[in-house]
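Appendix C: a fully annotated inverse folding record. The material below is reproduced so that readers can follow the format used throughout the book. The structure is listed first as tokens, followed by the designed sequence.
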């Protein structure tokens, strides 16, 4: 494996100097792009879009054709693992993802097993390989998975939840059952991410989308411990190149020091914490990714540039170690031209920063 022509994203994750701050966006391939909507229409369903490697490759590349982004991210869904476990994933318009067979009975939880990614999730590894070939080493490819706790939320609740009533009842009344789910799911996530790396992913990200809903003590026991277990088991080098890892706990700003200690290369930040303060707290132990409020992209291009500059200035230079991103996924209602304004502003402002410091 050789470094891509544009390796600024990988260099930033490894805290190596870069000529500018690299940028990519969570959900950068999505419904805000008309070309994505057309491909999804042809696919017939969101799941078909995920499960046909050629279609997943097509939509992964679409934002790179429009914007000067510094990384591609595999187009898939975090719920592929529980689907492969037999829970019956489906999508309903206006309701999001649902499971036909959520984990409600003890026998079903005890019978849970980790799927073989080379068998039950082969469509994902095939997509990774196809995307890498299509990228032709232009920019790095990011693989990803949901965190064990986030996946468990969906698996127990049966879909998205407003109050997490079922999983938190299990957490407090039957922690043994939840730990079993998390242990099996951790094994599945580790194998899944390593299969993506072996298929060509050059960095991996773990999305702990619902970890921030936990108390401090519960976060340590039911989310962070399993994040550490996964990071410990990741392939760290392939074909002579480091494979960096990013951990993103939405709402996890209170626990940055603990997250930095799990062994990941970078922490993803949501928009509720000042990135300069985050840097002061974790020092140079990890790189930071983030953290513009996605709603800024509804503002004018001039305001977008201003707000992006605030994030960059707050982070400062610090000898690199910053990957610019949103604090969560891009909204489907974002004007595509506003994304172009953001990418241009991040590149130009950060080049200017470095020029002033030279």
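Designed amino acids, in order:
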């Amino acid at each position: 494996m050789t470094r891509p022509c544009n390796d600024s994203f990988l260099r930033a994750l490894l805290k190596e100097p870069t000529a500018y701050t690299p940028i990519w966006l969570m959900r950068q391939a999505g419904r805000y792009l008309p070309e994505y909507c057309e491909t999804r229409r042809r696919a017939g369903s969101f799941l078909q879009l995920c499960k046909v490697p050629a279609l997943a490759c097509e939509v992964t590349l679409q934002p790179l054709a429009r914007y000067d982004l510094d990384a591609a991210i595999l187009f898939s869904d975090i719920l592929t693992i529980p689907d492969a476990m037999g829970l019956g994933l489906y999508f309903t318009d206006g309701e999001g993802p649902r499971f036909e067979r959520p984990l409600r009975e003890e026998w079903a939880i005890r019978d849970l097993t980790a799927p073989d990614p080379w068998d039950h999730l082969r469509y994902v590894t095939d997509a990774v390989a196809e995307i890498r070939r299509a990228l032709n080493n232009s920019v790095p490819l990011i693989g990803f998975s949901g965190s064990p706790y986030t996946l468990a939320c969906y698996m127990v609740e049966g879909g998205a939840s407003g109050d997490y009533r079922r999983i938190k009842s299990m957490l407090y009344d039957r922690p043994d059952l939840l730990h079993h789910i998390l242990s099996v799911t951790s094994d599945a996530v580790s194998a899944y991410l390593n299969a993506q790396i072996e298929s060509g992913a050059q960095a991996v990200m773990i999305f702990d989308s619902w970890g921030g809903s936990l108390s401090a003590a519960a976060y340590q026991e039911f989310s962070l411990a399993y994040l550490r277990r996964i990071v410990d088991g990741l392939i760290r080098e392939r074909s002579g190149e480091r494979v960096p890892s990013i951990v993103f706990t939405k709402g996890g700003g209170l626990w940055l020091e603990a997250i930095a200690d799990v062994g990941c290369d970078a922490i993803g930040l949501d928009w509720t914490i000042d990135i300069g303060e985050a840097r002061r707290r974790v020092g140079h132990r990890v790189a930071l990714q983030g953290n513009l409020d996605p709603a800024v992209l509804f503002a004018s291009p001039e305001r977008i540039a201003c707000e992006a500059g605030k994030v960059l200035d707050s982070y400062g230079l610090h000898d690199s170690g910053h990957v610019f991103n949103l604090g969560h996924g891009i909204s489907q209602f974002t004007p595509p031209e506003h994304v172009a304004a953001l990418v241009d502003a991040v590149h130009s402002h950060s080049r200017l920063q470095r020029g002033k410091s030279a």
